[in-house]
Amino acid sequence: MSIMASKRFAGVGGLIALGILFLGLVMLSNLLIRGVRLDLTQNRLFTLTEGTKQVIGEIKEPVNLYFYFSRDAAGKQAPLILPYANRIAELLEEVAARSDGKIRLRIIDPQPYSEEEDRAAELGLQSLQSGAGDALYFGLAGTNSTDGHSVIPSFQPDREQFLEYDIAKMLHELANPKKPVIALLSSLPMSGQFNPQTGQTGDSWAIAAQLEQLFTVRSLSSETDRIEQDVSVVMLVHPKNLAPKTLYAIDQFVLRGGRLLAFVDPSAGADSSGQDPQNPMAAAFADHSSNLAPLLAAWGVQYDPRKVIGDADLGLEVRSSASSAPVRHIGILGLHHANMAAKDVVTASLDNINLATAGYLAAAAGAKTTFEPLLLSSDQAAPLPAERFSAMTDPASLRDGFKPTGQRYALAARITGTLASAYPNGPPGDAKPAAGPPTPHLAASKVPANLVIVADTDLLTDFLWVQTRELFGQRMSQAFANNGDWVANMLDNLSGSNALISIRGRASFSRPFQRVEALKRRADDRLRLKAQQLEAELKQTEARLTQLQAKRNDQSSMMLSPEQEQELKRFTAEKTRARKELRETQRGLDVDIQRLSGWLKAINIGLVPLLVALGGFFTLSARRRRRATAPATP
Fold it and tell me: Which pTM value belongs to this model?
């Protein structure tokens, strides 16, 4: 065998040996680090939050999750949701892996006219397919050991950042199937008001009927001195002149970990106090405000019950007795999605909420709690005296002298953190010991508090969000605003466990290639500039040709003059040159993107597996060294 052939054989053998070594290292690393999970995404999208881990840890009985995704139908009808579906499946697999077998996950691709497709419909999943074609299911159903079930009918891309929260909420509902208890204390006739003239009680508000369907609602008296342990959330609506013992009971309920949703108002339209049939104007000058002064001060919230927010940008048009034409009422506000907290689960998916004569909230100076606005006015707002709304007949008069401050005011806010009692020295002097087993006084909250304060009660009334009509003897309601959805979201969120409430929105998993986007932007800028220059040249040439034509003696001739021919040749040459530069710019962009793509492929295909293999090799070497240096056992 010649020397050249020997060298060639040695080279080939060396490559084969390197290949075998590489494959061996990869297999060895797979054995050594099996089960190890490493999340290298920038926003740690595949790492569960502590709240989700706690929700999973609280599951006592097995839970079944069924992720239905019609992959073939999606590929034909909605291919853009395929990456999102993969993201959901991976997150569900991570959740199941963390549950120690308590969560049983099945990923199902229901085929047309199959039993699995029928089962998806029975569980309450909705098909995304609206026209011709196979049904497209893209939802999640869950069941527990007591035949309870929960469902996400279809995953919506606009709720992607709350994907982990929605899944954790489903798990919490399956682990805790009982309806949460909501204790309602209201000075407004939410359940219907007795009319002495007709001797009948009016219809209840739509919001009250909605709460009865979703929760176990328990009424609280304005003289209550104790809130039971099984109450999940206390809901206060227009709390007026509450007794000290009632305020103290609410204070202690919150400090021991209870949740609170409070609606206060500087001028509640549904407050009928002060009405006198003999004097119709008496109610107009009565005090229709509500407050929780000692509690709000202790919670670090500033609120003035004498001020109403006017907003020139968000004011809705209404009809008044003073004018037949619609008039903009700067005290009745129509909030859009831009006026809601985008990162809070209770408002993130809502489009519009209507309020009337709302007050505003702010963090008090030196507050130790966290103040997070949920609803905000526009920057064309300003506080107005509540008295201006009492006997007002023409809404247009509110704009007289109105000057926006340029500040956005919080109309509702979430308060979190450690709270101090509004009664540091114990129960108020006139409060008698509550009935039942004695409870120790709390001077500070046991766990971080979570409260929502809303500076308006009118948003709960029907006229601001729902239309009700009689149809075949039954009341039918149709919502035109998200007021009811928002209240349900808040109660649903607050009634969950501490772990569930702690879960916030995550970043989107869809991340553009920033380098590629930057390259495209720079190329687009150059292309746009060249195109603009070419357009300017064309206009100048047309103007020059027109000018030369005007100087000719025989303007009716269709033949070009020598000057026109020269100008046209010059423009043609310039256009050819500019188009060549445009093509070269586009070609350069493609080359840059291909070069970047090549580097990414080399890193993903070659470098990353090599690093994994080296990691496994060094791990094995370290273990061998530890074994070699360890003292021998007798």
Answer: 0.69
